[in-house]
Structures are given as structure tokens and as C-alpha cells.
Structure to design on (562 residues):
């Protein structure tokens, strides 16, 4: 006879929680609740200004925003030991002393719905309310439902009841009535037997414990014992989790707390070994999660605390931590103008993250002092040449003359095309060294399109020094030799005003024409300069002769630049 078929048993919430939710919205809600519970617990364990609390708050905000943006509202059903989203368990904790779900259920909360338009202020207020109930200390506070309704949320809705029945508190299926009656009235085992007679109490006496008996206890508290215990636990846990298919979210939460504990105790060596261990035993995803959590200010502070103030470089055993340190934290400390020793170390840490973190450095350059901005800008140019124009654009916009000159030097050797319009604007800069350097760079990297800007600098009303005029003349000869030769022919023999002689503008143009003529290709310019030198006196004559000498020293083509 065929046996009747039976449907497979339905999985319990605990079993479902161990496997983890399958629906994407349930997974996102689980991540939000995990971040929420960790942030709420951090309020109890740490000072509100602690960097770890800020990290948990940022994680909670990011997870909540991502879930709301992708799935809209989050409708969370509250049970005594579980929280569910769309029928899937996303939070499970059977320990009523620590369970957030039990505390909310006990207060009457049955459903919590977070709407897409919930603001960060409302989400933060929700976290504060749950933290009060999570602590289990301030029991004189109003219950959760009262606190939630008192706030008057617009983006968070709650469904609550006035109380709960024993059936609600115990979600297990009810027993058979007769079995239940029998169990309720069954007397304890051995209730009718005589009590065992206890021995007579002896006198209290001191007894010395032998050293060999104390040795194992002392070894547990010795240097490195905790680290070895942590590594052993991590190895066994990861191997067992991979064998049994444990939920990855639980492992991530455990190792994140383990990482934070090692950081808080300053156990950088143990933390490094733990990270390497996870990679060796196959916990690659866990390792990446841990690495992402090392980018806050706490890790940087601990690394710097392990280095003397006057140290010029990081010790070799700390070098592996360079890729793990948060560049934003290092830049923030640099912006605070630390001492010279710390400044060198922090600069090394930032430069070690280039070119990957070039964007973060570029964002902070305007807020740094000139010397530090120059060093970091040079680092970007050396390690990420394709970002040179971005560094130059920031340097040229600075009020500091040295930074503008640094930007021009970087632009001169930048790969590819260079932006010519900002260079032409610098010909009107208030600093003469900047104007002269801009003319020099235009001569090397410009084309005929900058001819009018160079010519306008010499024909304007501003007084120009001989050195600046010389740079402008050479730049004209380099970008447009034919057009420049026609200009120089008129500037070399200007018409002097009666009695007053040449104007300052005419002298600057003549000076520029001599330097530019010496930079023209071919041999025709030499007789022109020689004839002008013979009929000139003093400075102009010496300028003509020096230009000729410089031209003749050049191997071929135009004269070399000074």
C-alpha cells in the first residue's frame, strides 16, 4: 500500500534567517537594519564624538538612502525575535536581553514603514529613539510607540497595538491541550525524596598555588596571546563558514567588530595578520570588506601614534598599511598645519595613494597652504601626467605667485595640447615674473592664434621691463616667424618724438624686436642686428651684441632660450 505523501515542513524563521533573504528589497532592508542596530549600539558603547560612531552613522545613512532610492518605501514587520520584509526574515535575534526586535515588539510596535521622502533628520531621530530602547538601561523613558508618535514623523509611519498576548510573545505552535495540561501539573523530578546531606563546612585556609599550575593562566594574558587567539578563531570560523555555507552578512558583521576591536586596542600587527589570513584561507570578500572599513581617521591615528614625532619615514613594518589608510583623513590632518615631522609622513601617505586617489587630492588643493599644494601638485604631475592640466588650472587660479609659476612650469612639459586662453590672460597678470613666464610658455607651446595676445602686451599702455619685453619678442618669433618679422622691422627703427626721443612703449617694442629678431630662423637677421649695434649706444648696443652672440652659439636654427 502506498504511503500518503506529505509536504515538506515549512522552514522556521530562524532557518530562513540563517540562509539569508533572497529578494533584493529584503537584502537591502537587512543591510539597513544591521547598520541601524550597530549605530544604535555604538551610542551606548562609545562617546558621541568618537570616530567609530561617525563611521556607523555614515554607513546607516548610505544604506538607508540606497534602499529608499532603489526600492521606494521599506515596510518592516516586527515580531518578537524577527523582523520581516515581504515575508522574509531580515533580522533575527532570540536573545531577549539584546534583541532590538523584542524591545520594539514589547512596546507594541507591529509595523514600521519608512517612506521614500523620509529626511535624514527623521532617520536620525528614529535612530535616537531606538537607541534609548536598545540600551535597556533607561526604563523610565516612554515606550517606543509613544516616542515615535510624539515626534510627528512625515516620512515614517508606524502601526502599533496597546499590548500583546502570551500567544504573540511565543510564536511557536501551541501544544495539544491534553499534553499541555499534563505538563502544567507534572511535579518536579525527585520532589518526594530526602534532600542530600551536605558535608560539614571546613575552616577557611590559605593555600599557595604552584607556579606550574599558574603558568597556563599567565600564558593566556601574555604578550601576543590575544593576537594568536584572534587569528586561530578567525581561521576556524572562516573555514567552517565556507564548509557549512553560513550567511555572508553575519560573517561580515563579526569580522567588522573584530577589526574595530583590534584598532581600538592599537593591535596593528595583529590586524595586518588577520587581513592576510583572510586572503589565504579563501575569505577574499571578507578581506575586501575589512579593507574598506580601514579608511577612517582611527587607522591613520594609530599608524601615526606608532611613529616617533621626528621620524622622516614610516617604519618598514607599517608600509603595508599605506594602501589601507584613508586619504581624506590624511588630507584633513595636513590642512590643520601639523608639525614638520608629521607633515612629511602625511605627505608620503598621500603620495603613496596616487594616481588612484588623484581626485581627492585635487579637491583639497585650494584649501592647502602654498608649499603643501605645490608638493602634492608635483606628485600628481609625476604619477598621473594625464591630470596635469587639472593641476595647472587650479594653480593658475591661486593668488599665490609661487603657485602660479609652478602651474606654468607644469604646463610647459604637460603631454598633449595645453589650454592657451588662460596663458594669454596671464599676460595681464599683476606679477611681472608670472607675465614673463607665461610669455615664455606661450612661445614654446603656442601657435599663431596667440599672436594678437603677445602683440597686444607690447602695444598696450602698461610699462614693460626689458626682461619681460625680451620674453615677449622671442615668443612672437617662435609662434609666427613671418608675421613677427614684419612687426620687428617697424619696431627696430621707431620714429622718435622731437626733443623727447622714444617713448617707454617704443623702447620696450625695440627691445623685444631685437630679442625676437635673434630668434628668427635663417641668417638674414644677423646683418640687421649688426647694423643696429653700430649706430646704437649703451644698453641697446650691448643688447644687440649679446643677442648675436647667443644666436651664434646655438648649433642651428633659432637661438636657445635662457
Amino acid at each position: 500500500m502506498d504511503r500518503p505523501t506529505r509536504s515538506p515542513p515549512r522552514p522556521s524563521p530562524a532557518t530562513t534567517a540563517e540562509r539569508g533573504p533572497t529578494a533584493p528589497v529584503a537584502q537591502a532592508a537587512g543591510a539597513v537594519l544591521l547598520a541601524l542596530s550597530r549605530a544604535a549600539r555604538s551610542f551606548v558603547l562609545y562617546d558621541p564624538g568618537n570616530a567609530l560612531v561617525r563611521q556607523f552613522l555614515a554607513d546607516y545613512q548610505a544604506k538607508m538612502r540606497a534602499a529608499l532610492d532603489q526600492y521606494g518605501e521599506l515596510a518592516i514587520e516586527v515580531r518578537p525575535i524577527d523582523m520581516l520584509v515581504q515575508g522574509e526574515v531580515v533580522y533575527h535575534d532570540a536573545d531577549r536581553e539584546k534583541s532590538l526586535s523584542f524591545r520594539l515588539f514589547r512596546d507594541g510596535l507591529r509595523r514600521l514603514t519608512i517612506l521614500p521622502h523620509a529626511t535624514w533628520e527623521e532617520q536620525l531621530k528614529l535612530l535616537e529613539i531606538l537607541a534609548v530602547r536598545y540600551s535597556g538601561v533607561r526604563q523610565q523613558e516612554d515606550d517606543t510607540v509613544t516616542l515615535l508618535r510624539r515626534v510627528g514623523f512625515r516620512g515614517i509611519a508606524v502601526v502599533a497595538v496597546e499590548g500583546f498576548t502570551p500567544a504573540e510573545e511565543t510564536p511557536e505552535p501551541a501544544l495539544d491541550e491534553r499534553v499541555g495540561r499534563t505538563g502544567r501539573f507534572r511535579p518536579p523530578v525527585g520532589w518526594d525524596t530526602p534532600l542530600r546531606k551536605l558535608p560539614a563546612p571546613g575552616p577557611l585556609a590559605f593555600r599557595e598555588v604552584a607556579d606550574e599550575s599558574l603558568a597556563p593562566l599567565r600564558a593566556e594574558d601574555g604578550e601576543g596571546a590575544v593576537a594568536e587567539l584572534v587569528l586561530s578563531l578567525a581561521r576556524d570560523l572562516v573555514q567552517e563558514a565556507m564548509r557549512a555555507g553560513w550567511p555572508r552578512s553575519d560573517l561580515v558583521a563579526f569580522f567588522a567588530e573584530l577589526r574595530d576591536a583590534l584598532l581600538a586596542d592599537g593591535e596593528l600587527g595583529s590586524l595586518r595578520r588577520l587581513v592576510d589570513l583572510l586572503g589565504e584561507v579563501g575569505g577574499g570578500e571578507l578581506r575586501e570588506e575589512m579593507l574598506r572599513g580601514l579608511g577612517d581617521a582611527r587607522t591613520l591615528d594609530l599608524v601615526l601614534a606608532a611613529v616617533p614625532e621626528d621620524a622622516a619615514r614610516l617604519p618598514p613594518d607599517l608600509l603595508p598599511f599605506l594602501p589601507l589608510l584613508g586619504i581624506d583623513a590624511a588630507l584633513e590632518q595636513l590642512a590643520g598645519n601639523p608639525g614638520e615631522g608629521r607633515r612629511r609622513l602625511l605627505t608620503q601617505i598621500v603620495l603613496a595613494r596616487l594616481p588612484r586617489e588623484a581626485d581627492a587630492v585635487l579637491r583639497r588643493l585650494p584649501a592647502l597652504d602654498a608649499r603643501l599644494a605645490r608638493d602634492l601638485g608635483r606628485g600628481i604631475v609625476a604619477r598621473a601626467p594625464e591630470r596635469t592640466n587639472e593641476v595647472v588650472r587650479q594653480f593658475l587660479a591661486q593668488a599665490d605667485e609661487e603657485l602660479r609659476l609652478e602651474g606654468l612650469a607644469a604646463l610647459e612639459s604637460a603631454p598633449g595640447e595645453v589650454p592657451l586662453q588662460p596663458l594669454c590672460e596671464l599676460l595681464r597678470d599683476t606679477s611681472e615674473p608670472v607675465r614673463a613666464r607665461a610669455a615664455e610658455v606661450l612661445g614654446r607651446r603656442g601657435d599663431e592664434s596667440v599672436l594678437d595676445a603677445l602683440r597686444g602686451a607690447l602695444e598696450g599702455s602698461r610699462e614693460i621691463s626689458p626682461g619681460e619685453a625680451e620674453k615677449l619678442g622671442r615668443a612672437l618669433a617662435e609662434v609666427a616667424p613671418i608675421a613677427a618679422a614684419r612687426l620687428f622691422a617697424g619696431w627696430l627703427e621707431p620714429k622718435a618724438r622731437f626733443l623727447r626721443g622714444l617713448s617707454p612703449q617704443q623702447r620696450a617694442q625695440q627691445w623685444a624686436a631685437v630679442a625676437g629678431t635673434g630668434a628668427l630662423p635663417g641668417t638674414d637677421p644677423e646683418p640687421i642686428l649688426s647694423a643696429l649695434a653700430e649706430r646704437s649706444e649703451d644698453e641697446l648696443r650691448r643688447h644687440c651684441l649679446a643677442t648675436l652672440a647667443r644666436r651664434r652659439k646655438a648649433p642651428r636654427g633659432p637661438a636657445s632660450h635662457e
Q: What stands out?
A: Residues 13-171 form one domain. The two ends are 108 Å apart (CA to CA). The chain has a mean pLDDT of 79.
